[in-house]
Write a structure and sequence with these properties.
mainly alpha, 2 domains
């Protein structure tokens, strides 16, 4: 494709994406796909922007990768099985201590 080049890539939480789309909506009309995405976010976004950022930072602070921290922030796992699904494709297998620490942090933000 001519004229299209990826400049940067980073993982964003659902509240961060919601904020971006709401800002774009204020400036003008959204594209069809953006409108559908915003509608979906309005229904399924569980945390506000500040809480999501704090949770992501706290998870990153205990050594969790940014991508996994974003997934945990978006899903808010309730038990070790939900957390296991997030870590299913990862090389690192969580032990019980790490699992409990993550679930305690998530529980503070629910």
């Amino acid at each position: 494709m001519l004229g299209k080049k990826k400049l940067d890539e980073k993982s964003l939480t659902l509240p961060e994406v919601k904020k971006i789309l709401e800002d774009r909506k204020e400036k003008g009309e959204l594209l069809y796909e953006q409108g559908i995405a915003l509608d979906h976010l309005m229904k399924f976004c569980k945390l506000d922007l500040k809480s999501a950022q704090k949770l992501k930072e706290e998870l990153s602070g205990i050594g969790i990768s940014s991508e996994i921290a974003v997934k945990i922030t978006d899903i808010l796992p309730e038990d070790k099985y939900d957390l296991g699904v997030i870590y299913a494709k990862e090389r690192h297998i969580l032990n019980d201590e790490e699992t409990e620490k993550i679930l305690e942090i998530v529980k503070k933000y629910k």
